[in-house]
Amino acid sequence: MLSKKSKIFIIIIIAIIGLLTFLEASEPEPINWFPSYAKTDKIPLGTFVSYSIMKETFGDPKLKDINQPPYEFLLDNDTVSGTYFFVNGSISFDDSELDRILDWVGKGNTLFVSSKTISSNLLDTLLIDTDNLISLDDISTQPMVELVNKNLKAEKPYHYDRDVYNPYFSEIDTINTTVLGVTQLYNDTLQIKNPQLNYIKQSFGEGEILLHSFPEAFGNYFMLTDENYEYTQNILSYVDPTKKILWDNHYKSGKTFYTSPLFFLLQNRYLKWAYYTLIIGVLLFVIFEGKRKQRSIPIIAPLKNQTLAFTRTISAMYYEKEKHKEIVEKQNLLFLDYVHHDLRIQTNVLDEKTLLDISARSNNDIEDTKILFKYFEELNRKRVLSKEELIRLYNMISEFKNKSY
To answer: Is 244 in the same domain as 267?
Structure first.
């Protein structure tokens, strides 16, 4: 039975857990601003809305999810054509992967990258440099964005009311690059007076490359604020709707595939606290109930292996009765079993190659190996064997095995 103090202690622990659970459940759910950019995430910087709109606009056959690294996908699907679509906070290709992507683009395809940090080797290849917008007069770093095409340009630039890092393309190859969109930090007039490039297009071989430095445009928060979705739709107007769009799921900060079953349990605050309460309850049960019911576990000696003693008894009986021929036959079978299981060599055919393998794996000379097997054959042909021949065979086998260790 539990003591009175133990019962009071358990009641206090349960009351504290209940209070913590109530306080946690009563608090409003904090907004998760993690830059996931995963198509399944409905958080502000997930791409659930933009992906769904693209799926409705282009249709299921045209929008294809790519879960492999680009290098592996293009290696196995070099004949596929369309637009390889990357959206994330950071996109970084290694040199071999970039070479394969650019080779694919040069065949008449499109590479679309919307990211704050774009792979430096890609920028170097296209003779592009980047910089960051900094406000000297105001600590606010909220960006405004718009497209330069008159048919796609809105009356006022689109405003993103969050202080974020704002990269732009500070240097470009003016001969081969087309400017598609610009950006500027927010001001009271909501006008872009000092535009900086944030959306450009450059031809590459028979294809083209689209670079965009404001991936928040594809986030749920931007898409669902005012009329901002129009800006995202107009960005996509430069993507060929008649070809496939290869949506990249590999370069995503948000984890698209969750392998842990606890992830779904811990995502829900109520299930999470129920899980914690269960764990704490089990620990309390083990602590208080285990002391009362624990019993010492008797030590049971394992059964002795009598195989060796039995083998020695049988071999002694054969030796005393001078059944040397039978002993040699057993020794032959045991040695072949040793070669098969310990040296892992088949003994069905003892040809020159097999003997060479036995010699190599046992660290014995090929001549000594041949002598041993020849002696086995010689003894097997005899009907009667002497004690000296048996002892010699034993010594040859022992010497052969000693070199194997």
So the answer is: no
